[in-house]
Design goal:
This protein is α+β, with helices and mostly antiparallel strands and 157 residues long. It has a single domain, classed as Mago nashi protein, CATH 3.30.1560. It has helices spanning 2-19, 26-31, 78-89, 133-148; strands spanning 33-38, 47-53, 57-64, 70-75, 99-100, 109-115, 122-127, 152-153. Helix 1 crosses helix 4.
């Protein structure tokens, strides 16, 4: 039931973000930054960090339990970037706690970082489904993009 609710919210967020325009000006877009980081667990949880800047440039550091390990880069389309920006803006970062943890040491954490101007980075860490729904939707969007983006390896073998 929780998965159905999350999928419904993802669809709603997608349609809202597609119909909304970004409110960030050029300077804020230059400084825009969002990232997700997945920490290890005691099992085979994927461990990585993905960063996206205001130009839509994405960097992925795949650390463990992923198809291609190492550093890679990719580029978001204008539509993908607009969706990320709108979802990031529609999140009330200042109202959230810094952490939403379960207390179970076996669970991986998700760390989300967001900034729209230098020096104002918001950092939120959560486990399981403990984060506010807007954060979970943003993370699902970023993770979905990560899975479909074409990544170019920065590592030379």
């Amino acid at each position: 039931m929780k998965n159905i609710s999350l999928v419904t919210l993802l669809f709603a967020a997608f349609f809202v973000s597609c119909s909304s325009n970004s409110k960030l000006n050029k300077r804020e877009m230059k400084d825009f930054y969002v990232s997700i980081e997945k920490t290890p667990c005691y099992g085979k949880c994927p461990m990585y960090k993905m960063e996206i800047n205001g130009l839509g440039e994405a960097n992925l550091e795949a650390i463990r339990f992923m198809k291609n390990l190492g550093s890679s880069t990719s580029q978001l389309s204008a539509d993908e970037m607009a969706r990320v920006v709108v979802q990031s803006e529609n999140t009330d970062w200042e109202s959230y706690d810094d952490e939403y943890l379960t207390g179970y040491s076996d669970l991986p954490s998700t760390i989300v970082r967001f900034s729209k101007c230098e020096g104002d980075t918001s950092i939120l860490r959560y486990e399981s489904n403990k984060a506010p729904v807007e954060i979970r939707i943003l993370v699902e969007t970023l993770d979905s993009l990560r899975k479909v983006m074409v990544w170019k390896s920065d590592d030379f073998d």
